[in-house]
Specification:
Strand content: under 5%
Largest sheet: none
Number of strands: 0
Structural class: mainly alpha
Helix content: 55-70%
Length: about 130
């Protein structure tokens, strides 16, 4: 990717989607959960595993699309453009996945999102 594409991803995509999550209401039952132990790490084993797994999926997807575009004869510029677009789509799907930690996003509430999340997705797609 070019430096401009990386800047666009960092400044437009992540900030816009992050702002959409900032206005997300908390999960149901969050106040009923016991607090973490004082000596517990901030990132549990499950969260570290989840971060690593998602990172591997995103990386594999990007490399697959880049290789696919080059094999189709699009050239390096076309392959870079496809990588950026696929990364944007994958980040949008991840936004809907990361909204809930203990419940699934595969239900009507999870798929629809709040107005802030939907506004962030529309803003990223339009940009």
């Amino acid at each position: 990717m070019t430096p401009v594409q990386i800047l666009w991803l960092n400044m437009v995509l992540t900030i816009t989607l992050g702002l959409g999550l900032a206005f997300e209401p908390s999960e149901s039952g969050v106040m009923g959960r016991p607090p973490r132990r004082r000596d517990a790490p901030i990132l549990s084993r499950f969260l570290v595993w989840r971060i690593g797994f998602v990172s591997l999926l995103l990386t594999a997807g990007v490399f697959f699309v880049f290789d696919y575009a080059l094999r189709r004869g699009l050239g390096e510029d076309g392959a870079r453009t496809m990588v950026v677009n696929v990364l944007v789509v994958m980040e949008i799907f991840y936004l809907f996945n990361v909204r809930y930690l203990y419940t699934t996003s595969f239900r009507l509430n999870g798929a629809m999102g709040t107005p802030a999340v939907l506004g962030a997705v529309v803003a990223v797609v339009v940009a």
